[in-house]
Amino acid sequence: MFGFTRAQAIGFVVMLVVLIIAPFIAYPIFVMQVMCFALFAMGANLLMGYTGLLSLGQAAYFGMGGYIAGYSVQTLHLTPEVGILLGGLVGGAIGVVFGWLSIRRQTIYFAMVTLALAQLVEFFAVQDTSFTGGENGIQNIHRGRLFGALPLGHDLQMYWLVLAVFLIGFIFVHRVIHSPFGQVVKAIRENENRAISLGYKVEQYKWIIFILAAVLAGVAGAMKALVMGIATLSDVSNSTSGIVVLMVLVGGIGTVYGPLIGAAIIIAMQYYLAGFSDWVTVIQGVIFIACVLAFRRGIIGELGAKLKLSL
Amino acid sequence: MMMILGKPAPLLFGQLLLGIINGSFYAMLSLGLAIIFGLLNVINFAHGALFMVGAFVTWGLLHYLGIGFWPALIVAPVMVGAFGLLIERTLIRFTYKLDILYGLLLTFGLALVLEGIFTNAFGSSGVSYDGPNILSGTLNLGFMYLPVYRAFVVFAAIVICFGVWFTIEKTSLGALLRAATENPALVQSFGVNVPRLISLTFAGGVALAGLAGVLAAPLYSVNPGMGTSLINTVFAVVVIGGMGSIGGAILTGFGLGIIQGFTEVFYPAASSVVVFAVMAVVLLARPAGLFGRVA
């Protein structure tokens, strides 16, 4: 079902069980944050892992998704599910424009274009204080009631919503990768010139993947804003773009479960090392270097290679 | 008061000068990036961090050792270059055989490490550095007041850019570099030690970032984030100019600084984003960049 291999199906069941038990043994906010970032990282992985495009500006869609959700729930008094949908839509809309511009260049130029465009969004977030709250961000966002009926104030109530959205996103991404469309995308990654000569319009494929990644980032940012009750400048900043790349790298580029594992590890690290403040940046940098030099397949990638399975 | 295009002349010239100064730094940094990219095929994301290190070294030389600005102009770039040599030999060289993106990711991590270490040591607000006395004060040019140090920075940047351009385009060392960029295997078969050439090129490019850092130290507040905020704009400059030519990198750098300065006069709200707007237009009209070969 959904194109899962046997091993991936077992992985899915294990993941489901863990995520259902998790809020009762771990801090629910923590697990929710992991799921939000995992969704975000799955989008980045669509670009990095399956299309071979490294974006260094994913925070633009994530951060704007958060602002949109915060603004629509707090100021416009919309219901949370509408806020999350709007977050995804706005993230996607920015992705339509930015993707249209950035797919014109490849590899490192693509990375620099995405970084520069994200910088533009960050400037906007700093300056347009009436919408984003500038340095303060949007604070004390109330989660409201799902569909105007079900309260989400309690963390466990919110948890099931986040889990549901995460699972929908997870299955959707998996379905995209294992569709004929996904096969073409992977073919472009392997040999772009050949894909062109076979008659595929590679730019359109890249563009669609770019937009999907932006939508996922927008939804993830929107949910994160509702979970934490705050949408801040740091969500739209370059360091967040770096973190999501790190999550994919640590978990395993181009793997199904890598983004989730990477997100869990990096978020856990941020929690446990919160007392060391600025050393967290140093450690993240060291992990980047270590991954590139010694550990390019990431945790899930290495595990898959050991077990000779695609995970 | 003299008016030009409906704006007071001192304001116009003041912003123009600021634009040229920003352009000087864009040019010096994108130059280093272009040189490194040409030979190593690595886009050095740590370039901004190394620029910041250059500024801190300048401050540290004075603060701890009592070594002033003029010796620092030589000492700091040498130190930053030596550090560059070290990271090229111990880290970056392992990425040459990999996909081009791994070099980017590695230097990205390196930038985080450097920035984190300096934030821990000096706090995010950083330190301030006073320039040499001889360059303090202002010149009255009649239509505007020109701070001497700023004039010096522009002058120095032009000399540096010209020097680098001359070295690469007109000397035998430069010819060797260009040849190795085109075809390293062939150059190596002629008996040139290409790996050493690569190491020294990286050190040289990084030293250029360090030198820019020295010039920046008296001008801006010396803080751990100073490189990152500048380098993001420089990347846009690189995308606009393309990394194909040294002269192109210099012209684009100064040009965009000047455009930014004028935007500050006529439409201040857009001054921080105008470079990115130019980038978008260039991407649409000339995807390979103004001076670039198709990437």
UniProtKB/TrEMBL annotation, chain A:
Cited Pfam families: BPD_transp_2
Sorted UniProt keywords: Cell membrane, Membrane, Transmembrane, Transmembrane helix
Location of the protein in the cell: Cell membrane
Cellular component, GO, one term: plasma membrane
Molecular functions (GO terms): branched-chain amino acid transmembrane transporter activity
Primary location recorded for the protein, binned into one broad class: membrane
Residues spanning the membrane: 12-41, 47-70, 82-101, 107-126, 158-177, 207-231, 243-273, 279-299
Superkingdom to which the source organism belongs: Bacteria
Designated name of the protein: Amino acid/amide ABC transporter membrane protein 2, HAAT family
Organism: Acidiphilium rubrum
Automatic annotation (TrEMBL), chain B:
Segments crossing the lipid bilayer: 12-35, 42-62, 68-88, 100-123, 143-168, 197-222, 234-258, 265-285
InterPro entries: ABC_transp_permease (IPR001851), BCAA_transport_permease (IPR052157)
Bilayer topology: Multi-pass membrane protein
Gene Ontology cellular component list: plasma membrane
MF terms in GO: transmembrane transporter activity
Keywords: Amino-acid transport, Cell membrane, Membrane, Transmembrane, Transmembrane helix, Transport
Localisation per UniProt entry: Cell membrane
One of the GO biological process terms: amino acid transport
Main localization (coarse): membrane
Pfam family name, one: BPD_transp_2
Domain of life of the organism encoding this protein: Bacteria
PANTHER family, per the entry: ABC TRANSPORTER ATP-BINDING PROTEIN, BRANCHED-CHAIN AMINO ACID TRANSPORT SYSTEM PERMEASE PROTEIN LIVH
Record family assignment: Belongs to the binding-protein-dependent transport system permease family. LivHM subfamily.
Protein name: Amino acid/amide ABC transporter membrane protein 1, HAAT family
UniProt organism field: Acidiphilium rubrum
